[in-house]
Write a structure and sequence with these properties.
Length: 140
């Protein structure tokens, strides 16, 4: 009878360990999905005029050289208003990714006599993994 309990205990231990390993694998999102979520969250912050929120998605290196006030000023000087964004795809290495985004925008007073015009453009963003978190590395 003691062999039965030992075998059953071992079986339960193995099954429990297997379940834990499988659940850990199931909850880890691939880099592409994490990037899609972060990239779109950043764009949604910009659409909602949450510049401080969007600033937090910028790489620590960029934020160390460009203050929030400087970043805000650069955005406010632009004659473009982004009106929509759609994640297209990403191409990832271990710690760096290129993310393609389809942007909808309106440009104001770019051409004499034309108040504004709407456009669409595909852009490529560079994202970097720093201390386990993905950050946008803006173009200078």
């Amino acid at each position: 009878m003691s062999k039965f309990f030992k075998s059953r205990d071992i079986l339960l231990w193995v099954l429990g360990g297997t379940f834990l390993l499988l659940s850990a694998c199931a909850t880890k999102m691939p880099a592409e999905k994490v990037l899609e979520t972060r990239a779109m969250a950043r764009w949604n912050a910009l659409f909602g005029d949450d510049i401080a929120g969007a600033y937090e998605y910028l790489s620590p290196g960029y934020r160390s050289s460009v203050s929030l006030a400087q970043y805000k000023g650069s955005l406010l000087r632009m004659r473009v208003k982004w009106t929509g964004a759609q994640y297209i795809a990403s191409d990832c290495a271990e710690t760096a990714c290129k993310v393609k985004i389809l942007l909808n925008y309106t440009v104001f007073n770019a051409i004499p006599g034309v108040k504004s015009f709407d456009g669409t453009q595909t852009i490529e963003e560079s994202w970097l993994l720093v201390s386990g978190k993905w950050y946008l590395v803006p173009k200078k």
